[in-house]
Amino acid sequence: MRTLILAALSAALAWSAEWKPLFNGKDLAGWKMAGPGRFVVQGGLMKTEGGMGLLYYAGEKLGNATIRVVYKVTDARSNSGVFIRLPEPPPDPWYGVHNGYEVQIDAAGDEWHTTGALYSLTKVTKRPQKPAGEWNTMDILLQGQKTTVVLNGETINEFSGNQPVPERKEWFEPVRGPRPDFGYIGLQNHDARSTVYFREVSVKKN
To answer: What whole-number distance in Å separates Cα of residue 20 and Cα of residue 37?
Structure first.
């Protein structure tokens, strides 16, 4: 029995210290799609196609963890995002906007709507996204109600769920309100003109 307990503890410590890939580089096993847009796997990469959609990881809710997303855009105005803290599996692509937070991917947006911003809720302090065609590494740290965004090694955003946010100005901006500590995560396919590639989506428990 003692050996089994020690093995379980060792496995738990290893899981907490290592990155667990959520994308296997071959197919979309473990992921589900909501909306008309889609993701395809080409050459070991996930690629956005078609209209608006939300590809979410259905395996488990994530919290008190770091989510790592490695992506590249194909144009300066390529638009996508990483959804976090979704309380339930999304039935449509707008569910993530209004029930979770979208960590934006869009170098062309203003400081409230650019890469690393929690869309329209918090602004970034820096804009270190690399030019089109180059890979970016985004780490999203979830610790209770705190969210920290690190892009290419630079901390660009820190947000606590209870801090004041600007009033909602547009219909497409998220409904304000609390989000859970643990939730599903997803990737956004924004529109047919935006093509974004993802080569890694991994998680490490904090």
So the answer is: 26
> Tens of pLDDT along 27-85?
999 999 999 999 999 999 999 999 899 999 999 999 999 999 999 999 999 999 999 99
Neighbouring-strand partners of residue 138 = 69, 151
Nearest to 97 by CA among 202, 190, 206, 1: 190
Structure tokens at 10: 């060792």
Task: Tell me the torsion sign for CA atoms 83, 89, 94, 95.
Answer: negative
Total-model pTM: 0.91
Q: Which of 75, 200, 90, 93 is nearest to 139 (CA)?
A: 200
Domains of the chain, earliest start first: 20-205 (2.60.120.560)
| 206 to 36, 83, 143, 145, 202: CA distances (angstroms) | 34, 19, 8, 14, 13
